[in-house]
Structures are given as C-alpha cells and as structure tokens.
Amino acid sequence: MSSSTGAVPLIGVVGPCGSGKSTLIEALESRGFRCRHIAQEHSYVPYMWQRITNPDVLILLTATYTTCTLRRRLNWTEAEYSEQLQRLEHARRHADLIIATDDLTPAGVLAEALSFVRARLP
Questions:
Q1: 63 neighbors 37 (Cβ within 8 angstroms)
Q2: pTM, whole model, 2 decimals?
Q3: Please, what is the average pLDDT of the chain?
Q4: What is the predicted pLDDT for the residue at 117?
C-alpha cells in the first residue's frame, strides 16, 4: 500500500490506556501497514499527535473506564481516565476513524480498521 508520494502511508493510533492501541498496531503492521502509537493521552499539548506524527490516517480507539481497567489491570481512578479523555479531545475532533472497542474482539477492531483504511488509502 502506498500513498500518492509512493511511501507507505502512516497510520496514527490514539486512545486511552487499555483501549487496544498496541494490539491494533501490531496487527496492522503484520499486514504491511506503517503505524505509530501516539501517546496523546499522556500529553498536555492537545495537538502533540500532529506535531510528532501528523499521520495520513488517525484512528482513535475508545473504551470505558471499566473496560480499560480490566484489560490492563490498571490501578487508576476515574478522574485519571477522564483526564486522558480530555487530553485526547483534539485528536478525537480530527480522527478519521473512531472505534469503540468495548464489545469488540481484537479481530473485530482490526476488521473495522482494515475496512476503513483500505477504502481510504490508495
């Protein structure tokens, strides 16, 4: 897969801790996509995702506090989770695709991402 410049397009993935970013990136990369995990949820700079990566496609993964906590066995508060969501708001407004991962398997998240990316990128 290549963009109009001939380079493999860059897919940026953001979301709160435990939403499935690493799992999705691994699956996409194993299929030849170039991805970047953007730790926007930890940055006070709202547009960090653009400054560091500026991806061709931005995917935002979402999941509830309960789901994220169970998946990663996180020891955090709902306030800390809410702070991550606030830090992701700029990326949310600019996301090309938002996938709610709570009720999806990793294969289901991948299927949604692949369907979108293959239709969107040349």
A1: no
A2: 0.90
A3: 90
A4: 94
Q: Look up the CATH number of domain 10-120.
A: 3.40.50.300
Instruction: Annotate 10-52 with DSSP letters as a single string.
Output: EEEEE-STTSSHHHHHHHHHTTT-EEEE--GGG-S-TTHHHHH
Dihedrals φ, ψ of 98, to 5°?
-120, 125
Question: pLDDT of 24-50, one tens digit each?
Answer: 999 999 999 999 999 888 888 888 888
pLDDT in tens, 67-112: 999 998 888 899 999 999 999 999 999 999 999 999 999 999 999 9
List the structure tokens of 37: 């995990």
Q: Is 113 within 8 Å of 28 (Cβ atoms)?
A: yes
Q: Residues 72-78: contacts with CB within 8 Å, 24+ apart?
A: 72/17, 72/18, 74/17, 74/18, 76/17
35: which strand partners?
Answer: 11
Q: Where are the domains of the chain?
A: 10-120
